[in-house]
Write a structure and sequence with these properties.
alpha/beta, Rossmann fold, 4-stranded mixed beta sheet, 9 strands, 41% helix
Amino acid sequence: MEKHTKRKGRLLVISAPSGTGKTTLCRLLMDQFKGISYSVSHTTRKPRAGEVHGTDYYFVSVEEFERMIANQELVEWAKVHDNYYGTSLGFIRQSIDQGRDILLDIDVQGAANIRAVYPEAVTVFIMPPSMEALRERLGKRGTDSPEVIETRIKNAVMEMEQKDLYRHVIVNDDLETAKNQLFFIVRACLEPTG
């Protein structure tokens, strides 16, 4: 009698400082690899223009988020820029058990928590080509004050110090090159062999 075992889903964790093009790369990845599901994080921050509850984030109150922490409903969570962000443990467990690969677009604190629980996760850190380029990109976005940009730059320095904890590092100097490198990693690490 043959035994068929369904393959477990795998986790793909992508982290990067603000302004490195991580969101764009994640969107390109999701467009290319239809079998990968996106993990929608919970957050206490207010929605930005055009963001949709349940698609971009689950927007919850601080009280609701703290209840989820207390009930151990999050596989990872962090407080970033005075707001909570976290990933549902139930969603991750259910997805893995169903054989679905999951993309987690999370910060370095969250990635460290994921690695502790799921050491086999595929982790990718996206780097800016330089701090000057990062500062320029953040300024061009036009969404942050000079003070917020400086905070993001300081955070970027601390985040980049952790890049060696990731299995893969991509420098996003050219979007097409970075995209191709990311797609290569996904094909090599997530797609079934044999």
